[in-house]
Amino acid sequence: MADAASNAVEIRGLHVRRGKTEVFTDLHLDIPRGQITGLMGPSGCGKTTLMRSIVGVQKVAGGTVAVLGDPAGTGIQRRRVAYDTQAASVYGDLTIRQNLRYFARVIGAPASDVDRVIEQVGLADQAKQRIDSLSGGQESRVSLAVAMLGTPELLVLDEPTVGLDPLLRAELWDIFRGLSDAGATIIVSSHVMDEALRCDRIVLMRAGRIIADTTPAGLLADTGETDPDEAFLSLVKRDAATDRHPRTRRQAREEASE
To answer: Phi and psi of 238, rounded to 5°?
Structure first.
């Protein structure tokens, strides 16, 4: 485990149940400060539930989640942690600037932040347009701009590039990198594996479990693959083989804790 002072998020023994489904039973994870950490994996693997747990809006059955040194979801984190959900969190009948002014007041961010974040996401020329007149990619940028208000220390972004063309995805990733270079910690989920190569660190998930916690270079080196999709498939096959041998999995956990 890394030094606690260097971690933005520390999760110990997380247990989440949704209905009769056990999403997580004993999940442990540290996410370091000042990096882009990608939560990667197929739809339904638990990425969104994990993010909801980190921002404190998910009911948990057990375990602890500490964010920036405090329990997840505490009031002190209101301006320190931002969450951008898969669904656009903006009002269609308001302009970009009106939306941002409203959300800035809600979180107590300075009024000057509005123009700053509009400029950062490249929407200065569209600031007076209503949200319902924007393209999907532009709307995603507005949601990101809302998350950037107040200069949060941690941004949790749930599949912000889903459905976007390669050019728009690349532009958003340039924004993420700029935020990280300025000192923010970013957690971004995706099921598009080539985006893993843009992260500093990768957490690969399958069926509610973490099957790899590594770097882009480490992922490719460990699997001997050059394509991230093939690398993930290789890890899935390895994990599935381990599932058939419970004793091997138990031994692996013991070795990892030594």
So the answer is: -65, -45
Report the distance separating Cα 142 and Cα 92, nearest Å: 11
CB atoms within 10 A of CB 255: 8
Whole-model pTM? Answer: 0.87
Question: What is the residue-level pLDDT of the chain in tens, covering all 258 positions?
Answer: 445 568 999 999 999 998 889 999 999 999 999 999 999 988 889 999 999 999 999 999 999 999 999 999 998 888 899 999 987 779 999 999 999 999 999 989 999 999 999 999 999 999 999 999 998 888 989 999 999 999 999 999 999 888 788 888 888 899 999 999 999 999 999 888 889 999 999 999 999 999 999 999 999 999 999 999 999 999 989 988 876 544 444 444 444 443
Q: In what order do the strands lie in the sheet with 201-206?
A: 81-84, 154-157, 185-190, 36-40, 201-206, 209-214
Tell me which CATH homologous superfamily contains domain 4-80+152-257: P-loop containing nucleotide triphosphate hydrolases (3.40.50.300)
